[in-house]
């Protein structure tokens, strides 16, 4: 009798045990720090799904690609991570990322046709979808309305074409007061390519076709800005954050940068600052803008693909919150209740329609370097724009294998 | 016949054990990475094949590519200028300061301590501070020069290709003076005072005393400081990363920064290894000079 009782209780205990041990663990690598996006998402997701544990680890932005490549080869890569837009193609081409298309097609949360074309292009590779944008950003033209009025320009009518931009910059430059008309960045890093690519694209070229008459015009216009003193020569070695710092201080009347500037600008800029779309070569030319931010990806050798995808789905669904809480633009059109910096936000949302990805190409860093070299050698006067862009095209052709 | 454990405790075995430990550490942490680097320079290395040893052998292709790069010659000469000017000015200014502080005056030790600030600060901090000083539009240096009437317009220290390298050299000289000053002070202090007194009694002027007593007695010290200075200057990366990142269009690019760009920005790791191997060859020559100069110290 007692023996039988013992057997039944043991059987019940053994049956209950596996049910308790069903917790699944996924590893997340992020460039965020505690309190920022991924940490917040992980906590909320874990509360909503008690059977999934998310281990979050912070990695420096500059080291992400190197650390990830190393971890994949040594076998201790995470399940979910965040990588910058141009790098998705690099990892997808090596088969290191999970193709989420089958799971997306079956999902009721993620709909790829609602994502803006730029971010969608950045995560697509040879028919598969290898990432989900966590947000986006782009660039636009900030301008100082007070300086516009002082110079006799109409702040309700910001420049819409390159000629208007040049004329406005000329009118706003005051060398005696140390004020430049325009601030942007032509630094010899990815930021320089990020700033120049929209100009190149609006003039009819792209990363694989840099040697067009329009690109020569664009690059020569940049050179004109610097040579005529409309923009500081330090533009060549300064990033966007520092260049916009001069705008905030009143040393530049206009600045080309992105929405990440708004928190600092709202505190430091003591003037009426406004935002307009990037000027196009002419009134009927196609618009383009840069695409920044990055994507949530799942590694191909994950052993928890369903849990990882559930987490990515959850983050996708939080898109209406990313602007107000984290400062990213949404990657698909959402209704944002009471957005911060509403006027600027509206312009950036409009800009997102034209935001185009860098690449995508698996060897993007080499292509970017060719473009940076062309920008720098033209702006320093080492080579004319035609020569510099021809050299860049030759290098890019080498990378593209043509 | 010594017993086994006594060999290790007292005898020659103990000495060998200590040497083996030091050698073992050097082999693992210095020799192995060095040899690995040399091997990588002969292979086609990719970001994703870093962890495995099995990579395609390409012979001297990487070397041919690097030496054939259009930017190789300007970068090489930039490096020569960087090292030459940095070491020369660090040495002369450091030596002058060491001689100055040799004379005891009130506050000498405190003032000398202040000069060490440059050595204590991390390279990136030094770069950031100098970045603000050398900024073209709002930098302190331009403001001072214009106020003193030495220049008319603004000099764009960091973005003008003709001066960007020299701006980095100025920041690097400031960074390296304390090191030279300290080592040369030690050497100066080792010269006995009675030698100077005897020479003074014989009627030698200050300059004559300096040339005939100080310099010859400091020869080993100077050799060591110059060799170490060259080696450390060739390793100087932080200042470039913080100030110009290779400068407008490679105007202030040097071999060590270029090696990093090749390996970690363009992911051309094979070529990055080639540049570092070339630098190692040069450093070996300099290190030989250093070892010879310190050997002379014992022969006194």
What does this structure look like?
The complex is a heterodimer of chains A (402) and B (300). Chain A has 402 residues and is an alpha/beta fold. Chain A folds into two domains: 21-137 and 292-356, 3-Layer(aba) Sandwich (D-Maltodextrin-Binding Protein, domain 2); 140-290 and 363-400, D-Maltodextrin-Binding Protein, domain 2. Chain A contains 17 helices and 13 strands. Chain A starts with a helix and ends with a helix. Chain B has 300 residues and is mainly α. The mean pLDDT of chain B is 87. The A-B interface holds A 65-66, 69-70, 72-74, 90, 94, 96, 178, 180, 187-189, 232-238, 246, 251, 365-366, 369, 373, 376-377, 379-380, 382 and B 47-52, 135-138, 156, 158-161, 164, 244-251, 264-268.
Do you know the CATH architecture of chain B?
Answer: Orthogonal Bundle
Tally of alpha and pi helices of chain A? 17
List low-confidence stretches of chain A.
Answer: none
- CATH C-level class of chain B is Mainly Alpha
Largest sheet of chain B: none
CATH-wise, what's the superfamily of chain B? MetI-like
What CATH architecture label of the largest domain in chain A applies?
A: 3-Layer(aba) Sandwich
For the secondary structure, the number of strands of chain B is 0
Quick check: average pLDDT of chain A? 90
Number of domains of chain A: 2
The major sheet of chain A is characterized as: 5 strands, mixed
Structural Rg of chain B: 24 Å
The domain tally of chain B reads 1
Strand content of chain B is under 5%
Counted beta strands of chain A: 13
Assembly state of the chains shown: heterodimer
Radius of gyration of chain A: 25 Å
Q: Which features characterize this protein?
A:
heterodimer; A: 402 residues; alpha/beta; D-Maltodextrin-Binding Protein, domain 2; 2 domains; five-stranded mixed sheet; 17 helices; 13 strands; B: 300 residues; mainly alpha; MetI-like fold; 15 helices; flat
């Amino acid at each position: 009798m007692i023996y039988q009782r013992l057997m039944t209780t043991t059987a019940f205990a053994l049956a209950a045990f596996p049910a308790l041990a069903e917790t699944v663990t996924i590893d997340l690598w992020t460039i965020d720090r505690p309190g920022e996006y991924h940490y917040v998402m992980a906590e909320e997701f874990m509360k909503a799904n008690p059977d999934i544990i998310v281990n979050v680890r912070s990695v420096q932005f500059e080291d992400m690609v190197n650390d990830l490549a190393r971890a994949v080869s040594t076998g201790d890569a995470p399940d979910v991570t965040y990588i910058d837009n141009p790098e998705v193609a690099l990892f997808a081409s090596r088969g290191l990322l999970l193709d989420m298309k089958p799971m997306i097609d079956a999902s009721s949360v993620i709909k790829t046709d609602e994502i803006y074309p730029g971010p969608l292009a950045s995560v697509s590779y040879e028919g598969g979808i290898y990432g989900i944008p966590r947000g986006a950003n782009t660039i636009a033209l900030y301008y100082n309305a007070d300086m516009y009025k002082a110079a006799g320009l109409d702040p309700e009518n910001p420049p819409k074409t390159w000629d208007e931009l040049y004329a406005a910059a000329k009118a706003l430059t005051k060398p005696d007061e140390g004020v430049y008309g325009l601030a942007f960045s032509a630094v010899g890093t990815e930021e320089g390519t990020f700033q120049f690519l929209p100009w190149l694209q609006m003039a009819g070229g792209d990363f694989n076709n840099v040697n067009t008459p329009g690109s020569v015009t664009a690059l020569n216009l940049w050179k004109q800005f610097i040579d005529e003193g409309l923009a500081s020569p330090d533009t060549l070695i300064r990033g966007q954050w520092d260049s916009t710092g001069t705008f905030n201080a009143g040393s530049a009347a206009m600045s080309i940068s992105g929405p990440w500037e708004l928190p600092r600008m709202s505190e430091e800029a003591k003037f009426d600052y406004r935002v307009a779309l990037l000027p196009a070569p002419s009134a009927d030319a196609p618009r383009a803008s840069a695409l920044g931010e990055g994507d949530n990806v799942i590694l191909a050798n994950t052993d928890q693909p369903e849990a990882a995808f559930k987490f990515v789905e959850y983050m996708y669904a939080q898109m209406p919150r990313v602007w107000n809480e984290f400062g990213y633009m949404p990657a698909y059109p959402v209704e944002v209740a009471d957005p911060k910096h509403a006027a600027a936000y509206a312009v950036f949302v409009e800009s997102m329609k034209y935001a185009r990805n860098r690449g995508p190409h698996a060897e993007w860093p080499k292509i970017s370097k060719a473009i940076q070299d062309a920008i720098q050698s033209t702006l320093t006067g080492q080579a004319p724009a035609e020569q510099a862009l021809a050299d860049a095209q030759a290098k890019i052709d080498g990378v593209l294998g043509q | 016949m010594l017993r086994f454990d006594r060999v290790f405790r007292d005898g020659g075995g103990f000495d060998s054990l200590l040497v083996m430990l030091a050698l073992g550490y050097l082999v693992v942490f210095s020799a192995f990475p060095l040899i690995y680097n040399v091997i990588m320079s002969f292979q086609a290395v990719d970001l994703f094949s870093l962890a495995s040893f099995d990579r395609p052998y390409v012979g001297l292709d990487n070397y041919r590519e690097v030496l054939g790069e259009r930017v190789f010659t300007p970068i090489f000469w930039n490096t020569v200028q960087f090292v030459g000017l940095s070491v020369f000015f660090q040495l002369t200014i450091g030596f002058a300061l060491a001689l100055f502080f040799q004379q005891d005056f009130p506050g000498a030790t405190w003032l000398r301590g202040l000069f060490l600030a440059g050595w204590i600060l991390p390279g990136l901090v030094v770069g950031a501070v100098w970045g603000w000083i050398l900024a073209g539009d709002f930098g302190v240096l331009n403001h001072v020069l214009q106020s003193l009437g030495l220049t008319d317009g603004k000099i764009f220290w960091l973005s003008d290709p003709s001066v960007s390298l020299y701006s980095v050299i100025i920041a690097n000289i400031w960074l390296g003076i304390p090191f030279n000053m300290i080592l040369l002070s030690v050497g100066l202090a080792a010269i006995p005072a009675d030698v100077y007194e005897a020479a003074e009694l014989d009627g030698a002027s200050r300059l004559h005393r300096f040339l005939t007593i100080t310099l010859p007695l400091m020869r080993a010290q100077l050799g060591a400081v110059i060799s170490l200075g060259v080696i450390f200057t060739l390793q100087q990366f932080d200042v470039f990363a913080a100030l110009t990142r290779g400068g407008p269009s490679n105007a202030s690019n040097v071999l060590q920064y270029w090696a990093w760009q090749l390996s970690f920005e363009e992911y051309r790791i094979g070529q990055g290894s080639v540049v570092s191997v070339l630098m190692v060859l040069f450093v070996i020559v300099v290190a030989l000079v250093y070892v010879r100069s310190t050997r002379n110290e014992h022969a006194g």
